[in-house]
Design a protein that fits this description.
Blueprint lengths: L1 E6 L2 E8 L2 E4 L2 E4 L3 E7 L2 E6 L4 E5 L5 H19 L6 E10 L4 E9 L2 E5 L6 E4 L3 E7 L2 E6 L3 E6 L5 H24 L9 E4 L8 E6 L3 E7 L5 E6 L4 H15 L10 H5 L2 H9 L1 H8 L1 E6 L4 H9 L1
Antiparallel strand pairs: 1-2, 1-7, 2-3, 3-4, 5-6, 6-7, 8-9, 8-14, 9-10, 10-11, 12-13, 13-14, 15-16, 16-17, 17-18, 18-19
Helix pairs in contact: 1-5, 3-6
């Protein structure tokens, strides 16, 4: 939609689009937005670069502009979280994550709970990794391994049904993934196995973990390649993050190996990396790829030591 107002002190038309906003010949991609804040009938948009944009003089269109801006930003965050399951329930309430706390739209899907604040810290909580889901008063606490806790709640009459449906969804997705994973056989010389987001026995990954190194193979019909990693954490911690990253990326395999330049050219992937700590963790430990060739086996053994 097009609005009349002032942006950066100049009268202009402001157009809200699916991927960002446009004014005065400038386009601001939602991938570059750190925070959206309403202050005294002005809207401040803080960018990841540190720049602050000010939009004012919207008149009676102020409320509509702010609501539409936040809605589009939230929808783009959902795209960056690669949501695949149908929506089960949508509400608004309080949240607390390891990064921040506040009020936001809170969405329940068949495999996750998504928190959509007016910041770049939107998060998708995968229910398959939930160690505990507990309703304490008006707040629902979701604990992931190895003890990280996310809380959502104070959603009025939605709180209890939201909690009940989240528990039910968690049970269903865990059961489906267990059935699919049980059907995956580990072949030599791999030591670990796992699934992507979709619980399919023919879509899986295998990993060979050595002392501070890991070789990863993806089995989902793409070109054969081995992804290499070096890490300083314990093997258990690395494997936990690896599993979360594989589940988070869904069918978007490129996100784990794209260069920074390639990410810059694909804003949605930049948003995805920012919103998934496990993917950022994995990318930071990348040691390249091995394309399958005659020397692949020897090079792999050399890497694994």
């Amino acid at each position: 939609m097009i609005y009349e107002g002032r942006a950066q002190g100049r009268d202009t038309k402001i157009t809200l689009e699916r991927e960002g906003l446009r004014f005065g010949g400038r386009f601001v991609d939602f991938a570059d937005v750190e925070r959206i804040s309403p202050v005294n009938h002005r809207v401040y948009i803080d960018l990841c670069s540190g720049e602050r944009l000010e939009i004012s003089m919207l008149g009676f269109s102020y409320d509509g502009f702010f609501e539409e801006l936040c809605e589009l930003y939230g929808k783009r965050s959902l795209e960056a979280l690669f949501i695949e399951e149908p929506l089960v329930m949508l509400s608004e309430g309080e949240y607390e994550t390891p990064a921040e706390r506040g009020r936001a739209k809170i969405a329940l899907y068949g495999d996750s709970v998504c928190i959509l604040p007016q910041t770049a810290n939107a998060v998708r909580i995968p229910l398959c990794f939930a160690r505990e889901i507990a309703l304490d008063g008006y707040m629902l606490h979701i604990t992931l391994e190895p003890g990280r806790r996310f809380s959502v709640g104070r959603m009025g009459y939605d709180t209890k049904p939201f909690a009940e449906r989240a528990e039910k969804a968690a049970g269903a997705v865990k059961a489906a993934r267990k059935r699919a994973l049980d059907a995956v056989a580990i072949s030599q010389p791999f030591t670990h196995k796992g699934l992507f987001r979709t619980a399919k026995a023919d879509h899986y990954w295998l990993a060979a973990v050595g002392r501070g190194v890991c070789a990863l193979e993806l089995f989902a019909g793409e070109d054969a390649a081995t992804y290499l990693y070096r890490f300083g954490e314990s093997a258990d911690e690395f494997l936990l993050k690896l599993g979360e990253a594989m589940e988070a990326m869904g069918e978007n395999r490129e996100i784990i190996y794209f260069s920074k330049e390639q990410l810059d050219a694909k804003p949605l992937y930049r948003m995805a990396v920012r919103r998934c700590e496990a993917v950022s963790f994995l990318r930071a430990r990348s040691a390249g790829r091995l394309i399958h060739s005659q020397s692949h086996g020897e090079r792999l053994k050399e890497f694994l030591g």
